[in-house]
Amino acid sequence: MTYCTGMRLDAGLVFLSDSRTNAGMDQVGTFRKMTVFENPGDRVLVLMTSGNLSISQGVREHVASWVGEDGSSIWNAPTMLAAARIVGDAVRSVHARDAQALAEFGVEFNISIIFGGQIKGERCRLFSIYSAGNFIESHDQTPYFQIGESKYGKPILDRVITPQTALDEAAKCALISMDSTLRSNISVGLPLDLLVYEADSLAVTRFTTIDEKNQYFQMLRSSWGAQLKAVFEGIADPVWDAAPGTTDNVLCAANGKVAPLRVTVPAGVNQAAAAAPLQSVAQDFGSQAGSA
Question: Cα 145 to chain center, whole Å?
Answer without folding.
Answer: 7
